[in-house]
Every structure is written in structure tokens, then in C-alpha cells.
Amino acid sequence: MTLGSVSFVGAGPGDPGLLTVRAADLLARAEVVVVDGPVGAALARRAVREDVEVLDARQVREADEGGEAATTPSARARATTRLVTRAARAGRRVVRLLPGDAATFEGLAEELLACHRASVPFEVVPGVSPAVAVPVYAGVPVTTAGTGQVHVVDAARDPQAAAGLSAAKETVVLLGLREEIAVSVRALLEGGRSGTAGATVTSGGTTTAQRTVTAALAELPGLLEGADEEALPGPLVAVAGPGVALRERASWYENRPLFGWRVLVPRTQAQAGGMSALLAEVGAVAEVVPTISVEPPRTPHQVDKAVTGLVTGRYEWVGFTSVNAVRAIREKFAEYGLDARAFAGLKVAAVGGVTAAALREWGIEPDLVPSGEESARGLLEDWPAYDDVLDPINRVLLPRADIATDTLVAGLAGLGWEVDDVTAYRTVRAAPPAAPVRDAIKNGAFDAVVFTSSSTVRNLVGIAGKPNPSTVVACIGPATAATATENGLRVDVLAAEPNADALVAALADHGAALAAAAAESGEPLQRPSERRVPARRRAR
Fold it and tell me: Is 256 part of any domain?
């Protein structure tokens, strides 16, 4: 049996975008990922394929100890390495995902030596350290022109290590939980550090849950000890030093226009990836609620015949109007043992950039993408008329959904083409989401909802009810907005162009306008969910 390998990979402070290129490459090829706790598991789920086995070492250790985790770093390392080496000996590629920088992980040395003793090949990939990443995400550079030195104190291991760091020009970064950091701050003050100097403490660093509190150093212990777990969940990063004075001007991450917004994305999980990434760039947390389920046609005869026609030269053009259509034809090709080479000699059209990207991922470069509006109408404006001299074949294949409109078919017929409008997949309404999600939608726990088609409006209202009036409603185009209005929703945001980029940009502009209005009025900025009126009160 071929021996596997183990890669010890630093996961960074929390933002998946801070994974190193090497870390992302190893995760993409991993067969087993071993993590510690829910944070690592959540990151692994976003970074690896669905078929990868994700094992939580903490849960395995607790099971081995009869419900109690191993109490020392060495014992924890031994329990974890048994899990890691067992998978590697079975010939599997294992990624041991470590929080922060792998090079500074407590217990790394023991796990490396265990792999050496087991003759398992291993490597170590350092990661971005929370000690430097979290402060700069909070707008606090750890080095400035006046900074003499930077000291990092692990308050969980030795909170008193901060006692001698009294120089005002030195930056002190404290890592740990609330009580541990409070002890370290008191040690700083007892060592002579000025109590009036500014300090920050950040929870959820580099994620959209990030929250930073600024206070005088002397006030920090009381603030930490008085805060509950929900207000400042650990682990935390605290900073004392010259860079704290720059926070008001250097803060960038928490100043994103939709920072902390909880945005409902009513799409399938497979379709929502691009939208979720765009929302994350402006600071929002996307929560996907599938409103449709994509299923094969009831009888495959029609699409089977179309695929045969593609191969035998029946068509001049193939027009794809959705990612789902690309996926359906690609899956049908796989059944027949075909690949993208079967499109040789065909002209391929895509309704927009997202569909074109799905084709390129398959190895097909579309010949036609609308130069203007990304819709059936926009595609027709650029589609050439049939020319019986230049075009050897006058037939077009349109693999589409069972509920597709006739706009494109009628328009192509008007241009002289004969169209085979083939049902490549069916869309059916998804099952209602879980009760907590339905309650969140109705009670206004979401700050915004983004609708990308009329069907997403109808289906969401059908399976979960209307969003709370406090929820900002953003629509991708006039037709979607009209459907939202017909269903009793107030449309707050309309994209300038019918695509995901423009939709998220318009929502971000709306968020920025709300922030500007709050600043002008002198009122504290509140997200829409913080201004909501509970459904029960409205009903009285």
C-alpha cells in the first residue's frame, strides 16, 4: 500500500482569503482534513471538496477520554497524532489544519516527532499570524515610525509575561480569553505602563463577526471582566501601543459599507458561491436558503436526441441561458463519455458572464456574450441573423429549464433560425427552510435579501413567507422588482445592470447612504435588523 503524507497547514486568523497559496493548494488536493474545534471545521468546509473527510480532533480526543479532553498539550498531541498517522498510513493525503500560524502552534513539535517515528512524510506550511493580522484588520498597525519594539504575549500560557513591558513606544499584543488578557493588562499597569494610554481589544478578528472596542488601558480589565461571552467571544487580541492612536483613521475592514450585515441569498448552494463572495467583499455575511431544486427532465429522450444532434452536426449554434443548462449538458456528455471536444465546429452563445464562466470552466470559450444587457433580450440584440450563404446550417439548440420564457425562441425565429427548445432540466420549489430560518425571515433578523429572478421572489414567499418590512429588499432587474411589488414587498434597491456585481454594488451604496444619514443626524449607526419591529408587536 502506498504511504500517504501529512501537511501541517496554518489556517490563519479566520478569513479564508488569508490562506496562503500553498495552503489552498494542499486543501484542494486533501483526502482527509483534521481540525480542532468548530472554527477550523467551518473553514475546512469552505475550502475543501464535499467528498473530503473532515475530522475534528477535539471531538475524537474527548471520545477517547470518555467525554473529557486530554488535559496537557503533550496528551492532546498524542491523541491527535494517532488520528493523523492512522489516515496517512492508509495511503491518504492528510492536511492537519492548525489555527493561526502553524509554526507557533502549541503541540506542533510533538505531532511532527510522532510523524517522524511513524515514518510518515510530512511538511509544515506557516500561516498568517493573528498577532499581526487581527490588529491591522482593526485599523491598528503594530509598527509605526515611533515604535521601538513589538512584543507578543500569549496570555493563556503566561499572563504575567507582560509585566516588564512598560515602555510607551513599545507595542504589546496580547492573545487569549477575556480573563487571561485582563490579568496581562494588570501586569502591564503594575509594571509601569500608563493607564491613560489607548488600547483595543478585538473579537472575531478578520471575519465579518469582528468587533473592536477601544478604551484607556486602565479601563480594559474591568471592561473585559464585565463583558459577556456573546459581546466579546474569545479568543481575543488586545493591543497597547502607538498604533492604537491611528485606529480612527486607519480602520478599513469594519468600515466596509455592509459590515456585519446578515444577507439572505435565496438561491441553490451551487449558484450562490459568486454572490456570497461579492457580499463578503463589502463586509456582509451571506446565508443561502435554496428556493428551487434543479432536477433532470421527467423523460430524457428529448435531451438525449439533442446531444446526439450536437455530435452529428445538426446545429450551427448552441445557446446557454443559465449555469444550470451548462451543468445539465455537461452531465449528459459525461454519461455518453463525451467532453468539450464535441463542440468543435459549433458556435456557442452565453446569456451573461456567469454562464460564460461556467462554459470556460468546461473548456469552451463562448463565441457570443451580450455586449449590453445580460438577458435573453440582450442576447438577441447581438445574435446574427441567419444567412443562407454564410451559414451552412440554420438550426439552433437551446437547452433550458422547463419554465423558460419564449422570448429567445421567438426572437431567434424572427432572425431566420429554426430553434430546438429542449428541456434540459426542471426547476421545482424547494422544501421550506428550518423553523429558525423561517422565523428569522419573518421577524427581521436578516438585514437584507437579494433577489436574482422573479422565481426566487415567488418561491421564497411560498416556502418561508414575506421578509419583515425592516429587511432591505434588493432586486437584480425591473422584472424581478415588479414581482416583488406584486407579492407585497417594498423594493429598496435596484441594480443598475442585471448581474450579481451590480446588485451587490447597489446594495453596498444603499448601506453607505444609511451610514452617511446616521452620521449627519448624529444618531448611532444601526443595521436594518437592529431597527426592526418584532412581528408579534406589529400584529397587535
Answer: no
Considering the domain architecture, whether residues 300 and 420 belong to the same structural domain is answered as: yes
124 neighbors 8 (Cβ within 8 angstroms)? yes
Distance CA 77, CA 69 (A): 11
CATH number at residue 74: 3.40.1010.10
Type of residue numbered 486: E
Residue 72 neighbours by CB under 8 Å, 6+ apart: none
In a domain, 257, yes or no: no
Q: Report how far residue 109's alpha carbon sits from residue 127's, in angstroms, rounded to the nearest whole number.
A: 16
Q: Are residues 416 and 316 in the same domain?
A: yes
CA distance linking residue 219 with residue 221, whole number of Å: 6
Do residue 328 and residue 414 come from a single domain? yes
**SS3 of 506-537:** HHHHHHHHHHHHHHHHCCCCCCHHHCCCCHHH
Question: Could you please report the per-residue DSSP string of 29-94?
Answer: H-SEEEESHHHHHHHHHHHS-TTSEEEEHHHHHHHHTTSS--SSHHHHHHHHHHHHHHHHHTT-EE
Cα separations (Å) of 48 from 42, 92, 273, 364, 468?
A: 10, 15, 14, 25, 35
Cα–Cα distances (Å) from 285 to 39, 96, 209, 210, 280, in that order, read 15, 27, 9, 12, 6
pLDDT in tens, 221-261: 999 988 877 778 878 999 999 999 999 999 999 999 999 99
Q: How far apart are CA 407 and CA 426, in angstroms?
A: 18
Within this chain, do residues 302 and 423 fall inside the same structural domain, yes or no?
Answer: yes
Report the amino acid identity of residue 515.
Answer: A
**Is-contact 369 291, C-beta < 8 A?**
no
Cα separation of 274 and 89, whole Å? 37
Range of the domain at 77: 5-128
* Low-confidence stretches of the chain (pLDDT beneath 50): 67-69, 536-540
Could you tell me the three cell numbers for 199? 488600547
* CB within 8 Å of 253: residues ≥ 6 apart: 137, 138, 139, 206, 210, 259, 283
Yes or no: say if 260 and 527 are a contact pair by the CB < 8 Å rule: yes
Kindly report the CA angle at 100 between 252 and 281, in degrees rounded to 5?
Answer: 30
In 3-state terms, what secondary structure has residue 10?
strand
All cell numbers assigned to 539: 400584529
Residue in 346, 464, 352, 342 with CA at minimum distance from that of residue 408: 352
Number of domains in the chain: 4
pTM: 0.73
| Cα distance from N-terminal residue to C-terminal residue, the chain | 70
**Pair 242, 335 in one domain:** no
Condensed to tens digits (0 to 9), the pLDDT of residues 311-332 reads 999 999 999 998 889 999 999 9
Residue 538 CA to its chain's centroid (Å):
34
Residues 307 and 382 occupy one common structural domain: yes
DSSP H helices in 90-163? 108-117, 130-137
330 and 402 in a single domain? The answer is yes
User: Same structural domain for residues 420 and 513?
Assistant: no
